[in-house]
Amino acid sequence: MANLLEMATDIVAAHASNTTMTKEELVAEIVTVYQALEALEKGEALAAGTIAAEETGPAVSKRKAFGKDQIFCMICGQGFKTLSRHLKTSHDMKPGEYRKQFGIPRTQSLAAKNYSESRRQMAIDKNLAAGLAKARAARGKAKAAKKK
């Protein structure tokens, strides 16, 4: 029993080092992990509540998740400039799945507003729209020539 408890506390400590948690959340997490380890040791199937621990509810409200300087992951509560890479690496999830899970419309960007604006301004400064127009025109000419 002590060995399982030590393993559970190590797992939760690793999780807590990346995520801010209250005392109650820490205790609940230790209990959940301990029960999962105990079930695995006995060869029992894990309870559905244990498996879906990430899907219990958002760590951050929708209102707080979409800020000007950062966008917060509603699963773990961490802040980023963009969420796409974090979702893939940390949660093995595609942006569409994330949107569906939390009811986020497709029109809502998964990038911080200031970050999007700075990227937009950089594109304007570098006149990237002109290069895009040239590429589209060249592609149109190539298609026209191919049809003849």
Describe the structure.
This protein has helices spanning 2-18, 23-42, 48-51, 62-65, 84-91, 95-102, 113-125, 128-147; strands spanning 71-72, 79-80. The chain has 148 residues and is mainly alpha-helical. Strand 1 (71-72) and strand 2 (79-80) form a beta hairpin. The radius of gyration is 23 Å and the shape is elongated. The model is unreliable at 48-54 (pLDDT under 50).
Question: Which features does this protein show?
Answer:
single chain, 148 residues, mainly alpha, two-stranded antiparallel ribbon, 8 helices, elongated
Task: Please summarize what this structure is.
By secondary structure, this protein is mostly helical. The protein is 64% helix and 3% strand.
Spatial shape: elongated
Report on the biggest sheet.
Answer: 2 strands, antiparallel
Q: Unreliable runs, pLDDT <50, ≥5 residues?
A: 48-54
What class, by secondary structure content? mainly alpha
Estimate the strand proportion: under 5%
In which order are the strands of the major sheet placed? 1-2
* Number of separate strands: 2
Task: Specify Rg, calculated over alpha carbons.
Answer: 23 Å
Mean pLDDT: 84
Give the CA-CA distance, first to last residue.
Answer: 78 Å
Order of helices and strands: HHHHEEHHHH
- Tell me the helix content: 55-70%
Topology diagram in text:
Layout: H1 2-18, H2 23-42, H3 48-51, H4 62-65, E1 71-72, E2 79-80, H5 84-91, H6 95-102, H7 113-125, H8 128-147
Antiparallel strand pairs: 1-2
Helix pairs in contact: 1-2
